[in-house]
Q: What sequence folds into this?
């Protein structure tokens, strides 16, 4: 179906299906996946494409997500373009292999349809799953709508496989809120994607003619140096990520930045949020600005490597920054995004007051009015001095 | 001269920690953390090779004269001493 589509034409389809077409157009050669809600439709449709002969790929059915990621590591090590997708408990089950994939510098691409972690059992959306995997050493990108999900799913392969990068990459999209809704997407044609994304050229690969050892151990004398090399590679991947995004912008007219700004000009109060709630917050910002309130919005798209310079530039000049997390760091005072943002701003001589809110846990709906109430609450707290380390918005009792 | 791996800087680490040459395990002398090592009494040794056969870690080598001795990979487990037919192997503390 994807090949028959005309470039520039907008087609209505479920976001999960659009992501599966992105993976098909990227000519993924190996897909190892285990079904888990709300990611299932992506790999389900990919398995259909493979079964119908529309995608020439090895579809590896595994018995768990631990095996899905292990098989992905093995397949990427042979030099195959490798894709998988998961959510929540599935991502948690991949945990130990995620570090190995990135330390081995294997350019696997994975979609995470973000979902709350148990317990209590919840299939609905928040960012608790990916925030628990913050430090796995992968590139981590957040998208806000279906078109972004399609675009970044194609671009992720080009970024991950670049020999200046060689890092696995996660595209985060909100479970159900994005994965299960029908949106209009521009699906590129195969020729355009082929020109944009050349075949994978492995840097190292398992080859009996030229044997190498992958996944060797490191003595205490060497572990620190290997970690430093990984840290530098991930930090420096910023340049390639933004280069690939610029190329995509020239190709499609859709431009992406590490930290997106929405009506921030002159805004003294800024909301900050990642993921699909960014669009909800835009409606709230429009409402507040229509009433003459100088409230704007910043939306970090790139979570790892963290875009320090872009963030500092985006919030320069505001007095109050309201950081919205979709996850909790239980027992702590700063949830993951709040901690990162505060840390990024702390060294600055001029910095805004930063307040943190956690919203939309376990699928709790967040409407534009909620952002307006949240801003009012934050302004009152900022005025009288914060009464809490952070606020769990909307909690009863 | 090639720099030893324990002197590599982070810039010198191969991408992904990949080892591009075979046989590097030889460089890691795993015997250096043993606390006991076997000592052969050559007067009682009959060169039967049971110690060499039962060693689980290839930590025993045959010498040119047909006797046996530990190598750099002996971890001091003592299986050779236990299984020695004539009882000619004794386990001795490192440094003694």
A:
């Amino acid at each position: 179906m994807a090949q028959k589509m005309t470039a520039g034409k907008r087609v209505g389809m479920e976001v999960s299906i659009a992501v599966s077409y992105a993976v098909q157009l990227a000519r993924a050669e190996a897909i190892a996946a285990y079904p888990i809600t709300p990611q299932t439709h992506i790999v389900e449709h990919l398995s259909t494409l493979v079964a119908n002969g529309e995608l020439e790929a090895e579809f590896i059915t595994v018995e768990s997500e631990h095996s899905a990621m292990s098989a992905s590591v093995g397949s990427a090590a042979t030099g195959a373009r490798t894709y998988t997708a998961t959510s929540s408990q599935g991502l948690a089950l991949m945990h130990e292999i995620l570090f190995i994939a990135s330390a081995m510098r294997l350019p696997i691409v994975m979609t995470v349809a973000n979902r709350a972690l148990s317990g209590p059992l919840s299939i609905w959306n928040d960012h608790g799953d990916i925030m628990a995997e913050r430090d796995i050493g992968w590139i981590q990108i957040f998208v806000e709508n279906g078109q972004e999900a399609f675009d970044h799913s194609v671009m992720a392969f080009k970024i991950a496989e670049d020999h200046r990068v060689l890092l696995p990459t996660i595209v985060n999209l909100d479970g159900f809120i994005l994965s299960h809704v029908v949106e209009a997407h521009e699906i590129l044609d195969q020729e355009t994607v082929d020109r944009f994304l050349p075949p994978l050229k492995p840097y190292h690969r398992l080859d009996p003619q030229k044997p190498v050892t992958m996944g060797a151990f490191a003595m205490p004398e060497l572990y620190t140096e290997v970690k430093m090399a990984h840290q530098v590679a991930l930090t420096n991947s910023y340049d390639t990520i933004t280069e690939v995004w610029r190329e995509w912008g020239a190709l499609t007219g859709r431009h992406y930045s590490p930290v997106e700004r929405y009506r921030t000009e002159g805004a003294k109060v800024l909301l900050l949020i990642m993921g699909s709630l960014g669009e909800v917050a835009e409606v709230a910002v429009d409402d507040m600005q229509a009433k003459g309130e100088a409230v704007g919005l910043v939306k970090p798209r790139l979570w790892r490597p963290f875009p320090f310079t872009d963030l500092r530039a985006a919030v320069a000049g505001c007095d109050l920054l309201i950081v919205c997390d979709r996850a909790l760091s239980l027992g702590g005072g700063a949830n993951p995004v709040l901690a990162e943002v505060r840390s990024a701003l702390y060294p600055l001589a001029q910095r805004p007051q930063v307040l943190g809110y956690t919203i939309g846990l376990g699928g709790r709906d967040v409407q534009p009015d909620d952002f307006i109430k949240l801003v009012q609450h934050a302004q009152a707290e900022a005025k009288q001095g914060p009464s809490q380390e952070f606020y769990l918005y909307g909690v009863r009792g | 001269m090639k720099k030893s791996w324990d002197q590599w800087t982070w810039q010198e680490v191969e991408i992904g920690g990949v080892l591009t040459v075979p046989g590097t395990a030889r460089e890691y002398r795993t015997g250096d953390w043993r606390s006991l090592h076997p000592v052969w009494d050559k007067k009682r040794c009959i060169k039967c090779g049971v110690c060499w056969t039962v060693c689980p870690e290839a930590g025993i080598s045959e010498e040119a004269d047909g006797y046996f001795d530990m190598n750099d990979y002996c971890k001091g487990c003592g299986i050779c001493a236990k299984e020695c037919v004539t009882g000619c192997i004794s386990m001795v503390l490192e440094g003694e």
In short: Chain B touches chain A through 17 residues (CB under 8 Å).
